[in-house]
């Protein structure tokens, strides 16, 4: 349930309401919106039903949130949430690119990948040190050594770091080196892991599960949000369908759907979303046009010899070309968004 307060509400009007909420054993999230305060109430639905908040003069509207994800929903937070990754803002209007290899393979490789990423205009370096591999015989990642190499390469090129954590036991070490903690597709519904990363307070890049529905994905985000962590990025990385021409089917309709239902930014991953390097740029362009707030893309100094996901990794020349195209479209999207804002305010008149 959410309480939308009157615009002119004062602190002394707010306090008794918050006291009542807490006395009933409910939790409250106080959200300072653009022009009014919204209180999000969480707890036993039966208790919620039996308290009447409409009787408070300072409450303008009581809105029951019927879906199971509440803090993640647009109803709870009507404005877009901007996730601030140590100064790099995601969801604030600029399209943000995260680029790097699938796996950290060594000091030289990640340093070169960071140089490439920066040259194309990426703000964040991606790379895995703990790798979820389909086969237990495949390269599993360099672990903490890989994290150190990645941090060093990112710092040398003024980039932030996104990297995956696969189990709870590695959260501390990953949080030490990463600016964004990635939850991989295979762990989208690893609920204990979601709660534990939520507690770090760090930005979390939540990949969509291989067979994750939109509703399951939103609920996965809710596990993070209930830890009072509102730094969530939804990453659409393709879902498994009957189609074999691509590794996964990049579901770009998820971008506007998530943006309608939630307030958190959405990132597209055209690399895992296609699995084929020459499909990456077209789908990155489509990702910009779909309204995504950024993308995560695999690049490699020598894709042919990459230790993982070489088939979908871009070399420097192709990456730089793609980034030029993406920049043009991202600028165009700012104009398009301006037009839709104008149209919305006209529609309200
Ligand atoms: C990755 O980013 O390299 C990765 C393993 O992604 P996903 O979890 O989407 O498969
Ligand atoms: Mn990969």
Automatic annotation (TrEMBL):
<dbReference type="InterPro" id="IPR006268">
    <property type="entry name" value="DAHP_syn_2"/>
</dbReference>
<dbReference type="InterPro" id="IPR006218">
    <property type="entry name" value="DAHP1/KDSA"/>
</dbReference>
<protein>
    <submittedName>
        <fullName>3-deoxy-7-phosphoheptulonate synthase</fullName>
        <ecNumber>2.5.1.54</ecNumber>
    </submittedName>
</protein>
<dbReference type="Pfam" id="PF18152">
    <property type="entry name" value="DAHP_snth_FXD"/>
</dbReference>
<dbReference type="InterPro" id="IPR052899">
    <property type="entry name" value="Class-I_DAHP_synthase"/>
</dbReference>
<dbReference type="InterPro" id="IPR041071">
    <property type="entry name" value="DAHP_snth_FXD"/>
</dbReference>
<dbReference type="GO" id="GO:0003849">
    <property type="term" value="F:3-deoxy-7-phosphoheptulonate synthase activity"/>
</dbReference>
<feature type="domain" description="DAHP synthase ferredoxin-like">
    <location>
        <begin position="1"/>
        <end position="66"/>
    </location>
</feature>
<feature type="domain" description="DAHP synthetase I/KDSA">
    <location>
        <begin position="82"/>
        <end position="326"/>
    </location>
</feature>
<keyword id="KW-0808">Transferase</keyword>
<dbReference type="Pfam" id="PF00793">
    <property type="entry name" value="DAHP_synth_1"/>
</dbReference>
């Amino acid at each position: 349930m959410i309480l939308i307060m009157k615009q002119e509400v004062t602190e002394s009007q707010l306090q008794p309401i918050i006291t009542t909420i807490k006395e009933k054993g409910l939790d409250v999230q106080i959200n300072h919106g653009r022009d009014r305060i919204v209180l999000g109430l969480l707890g036993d639905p039966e208790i919620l039903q039996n308290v009447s908040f409409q009787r408070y003069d300072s409450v303008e509207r009581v809105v029951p949130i019927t879906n199971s994800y509440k803090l993640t929903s647009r109803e709870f937070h009507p404005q877009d949430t901007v996730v601030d990754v140590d100064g790099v803002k995601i969801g604030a209007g600029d399209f943000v690119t995260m680029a790097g290899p699938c796996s950290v393979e060594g000091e030289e490789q990640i340093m070169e990948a960071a140089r490439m990423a920066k040259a194309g205009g990426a703000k964040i370096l991606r790379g895995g040190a703990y790798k979820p591999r389909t086969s237990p015989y495949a390269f599993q990642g360099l672990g903490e050594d890989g994290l150190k190499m990645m941090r060093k390469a990112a710092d040398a090129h003024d980039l932030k770091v996104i990297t995956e954590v696969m189990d709870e036991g590695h959260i501390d070490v990953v949080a030490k080196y990463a600016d964004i903690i990635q939850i991989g597709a295979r762990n989208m519904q690893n609920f204990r892991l979601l709660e534990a990363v939520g507690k770090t307070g760090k930005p979390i890049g939540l990949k969509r599960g291989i067979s994750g529905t939109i509703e399951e994905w939103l609920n996965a985000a809710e596990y993070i949000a209930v830890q009072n962590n509102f730094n969530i990025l939804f990453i659409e990385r393709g879902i498994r369908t009957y189609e074999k021409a691509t590794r996964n089917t990049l579901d770009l309709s998820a971008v506007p759907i998530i943006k309608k239902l939630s307030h958190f930014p959405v990132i597209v991953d055209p690399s895992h979303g296609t699995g084929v390097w020459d499909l990456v740029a077209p789908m990155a362009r489509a990702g910009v046009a779909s309204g995504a707030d950024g993308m995560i893309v695999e690049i490699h100094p020598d894709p042919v010899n990459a230790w993982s996901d070489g088939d979908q990794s871009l070399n420097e020349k192709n990456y730089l070309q793609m980034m030029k195209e993406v920049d043009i479209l991202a600028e165009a999207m700012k104009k398009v968004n301006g037009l839709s804002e104008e149209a919305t305010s006209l529609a309200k008149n």
